Amino acid sequence: MHILKQDRKQGFLHVKADTPEDLWLLSRLIKPGDTVRGSTERKLKIGSEDARNQKVVRKKMTLTLQAEKTSYEHETLRILGTITDGPDDVARGEHHSLSIQQGDDLKITKEWMDWQLQKIEDATKQARENIIAVLFDREEATFLRLTNHDHDVLAKTKGDVAKKNEKNTVQSDFWHAINQQLRDYDKRYEPRSIIAASPAFWKDYLKAALDETVAKKTIYATVSDTNEQAINELLKRPELKQALQQDRSAQENHAIAELLHAISAGKAAYGVKEVERKANEGNLKALLVSDDHLMQEREHGNYDHTERIMHAAERGKADIMIVASKEASKQLDGLGGMAGLTRW
Fold it and tell me: Are residues 227 and 273 in the same domain?
């Protein structure tokens, strides 16, 4: 989770949810009466009530709600409440629901308790994103490492550009130098994804120079320049969201692999009853819960029971992961939708 802005005196917190766990945590922390503000869509009627050509359109807007109820389901935090602020054509006092997903930001104003703020702070310290990016054109390449909170500039290199009166080409050594630098960073940081971003058609030159090991991790994006402003532009690109989703899927698959190894070694519990027993004993160091399992439990009226198990595991200092990627979730569902690594 990112903390984008905070004013403790005003009880104001602006956060961005990065993971399903962030969304689940916020569903627990937001209580009836709290004020939340976020982007949404709402149906609006265009034209008078008796007009024959009256239209109903969906309009994007930012609304402030007084929360009445929250829920987490299918990788989405839903907040139901009454509208207290928004565009002039939206009636105050009407009910609306905000749907917050991974990558979305939310502004919350409430009377925060110290333990709640500590939970938010702990969420910002969870596993960092591990993505290498390169911004480049024919003259320069900037290498970055993206983390949950910021970006680090790793290096910059210059290209050998032809003079104006010569053919408009770039020495092939430049593209191979970028490839070599990416290979080095790949070995050092072991990123699950690499983003190569450039203006115009320069990506095609780099594609031809990349080694297979680097190429299979690389996602290509378009930016307007290669300066500091372009870095901010890259952070908003859909290609970055795609890379983060791939990174998350890889983390979940790794967690399932660890779980299966622990089961074979007799150091894991699976199935609701067995996991509940271990959680109540404080004998879980990690708890995996399928997103599909959470949704089914809600549909069957058993969600409160599932949350109590998760709370018990949390009190025992277990790391909690909500597994939502297709293959990993399928494997976990085959084990009862819930499993954990035991301490003893």
Answer: no
72/69 Cα distance (integer angstroms): 11
Beta bridge partners of 112: none
By the 10 Å C-beta count (0-12 exposed, 13-18 middle, 19+ buried), 323 is classed as: buried
Domain containing residue 28: CATH number: 2.30.30.870
Q: Are 71 and 86 in contact (CB under 8 A)?
A: no
> Token pair for residue 143?
């290498």
* Tokens linked to 332: 């976990």
Chain segment 104-120, per-residue pLDDT in tens: 999 999 999 888 998 89
Q: What is the domain count for the chain?
A: 3
The tens digit of pLDDT for each residue in 226-263 reads: 887 888 888 778 887 777 777 778 788 889 999 999 99
The last residue of a domain, from among 124, 152, 180? 124
Residue 242 lies in a domain: no
Helix and strand counts by DSSP (H, E) for the chain: 11, 16
Q: What whole-number distance in Å separates Cα of residue 205 and Cα of residue 226?
A: 16
CA atoms within 13 A on the CB side of 38: 29
Range of the domain at 294: 249-342
Mean pLDDT of 130-152: 84
Question: Cα–Cα–Cα angle for 334, 280, 301, nearest 5°?
Answer: 55
Q: Which tokens hold the place of 8?
A: 């403790």
- 256-263 long-range contacts, Cβ below 8 Å, gap at least 24? 256/288, 256/323, 256/328, 256/331, 256/332, 258/341, 259/288, 259/332, 259/335, 259/339, 259/341, 260/331, 262/341, 262/342, 263/335, 263/339
